[in-house]
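Quick one, probably user error.
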């Protein structure tokens, strides 16, 4: 059963300007512990690749927060939600702390799609709920 759907489009030009304004504080605020080293490695090889990584993760977290209906309020926090890649390259969701507990107690499962093209990064998230785990 569909619990929620979220989508987000991030203007990479605005992300570039924000990164120039705030420096590393921006990715440190948005990216989780496993995402941050990936951003640093990609940025070291190519600042544009690092920027696109940051923009897609930002967009995916926004889309996820919409799909679960919380927006960016507790227990949803930027760093408690990580978008990592499986060996196949497919994006997958990793949650931490109270957000993980909130998500699991509702029997939820997320499907994520990411894309970036020229000036935009886009994300689409579908969250399913196992009908057997619906809270009373």
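Nope, works fine. Designed sequence:
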């Amino acid at each position: 059963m569909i619990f929620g759907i979220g989508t987000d489009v991030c203007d990479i030009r605005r992300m570039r300007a924000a990164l120039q304004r705030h420096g590393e504080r921006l990715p440190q605020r948005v990216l989780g512990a496993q995402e941050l080293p990936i951003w640093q490695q990609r940025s070291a090889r190519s600042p544009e690749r690092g920027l696109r990584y940051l923009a897609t993760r930002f967009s995916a977290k926004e889309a996820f927060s919409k799909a679960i209906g919380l927006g960016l309020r507790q227990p949803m926090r930027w760093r408690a939600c990580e978008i990592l890649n499986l060996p196949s390259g497919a994006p997958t969701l990793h949650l931490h702390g109270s957000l993980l507990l909130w998500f699991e107690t509702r029997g939820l499962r997320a499907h994520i799609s990411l894309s970036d093209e020229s000036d935009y990064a886009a994300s689409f998230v579908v969250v399913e709920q196992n009908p057997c785990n619906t809270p009373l």
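The two ends are 16 Å apart (CA to CA).
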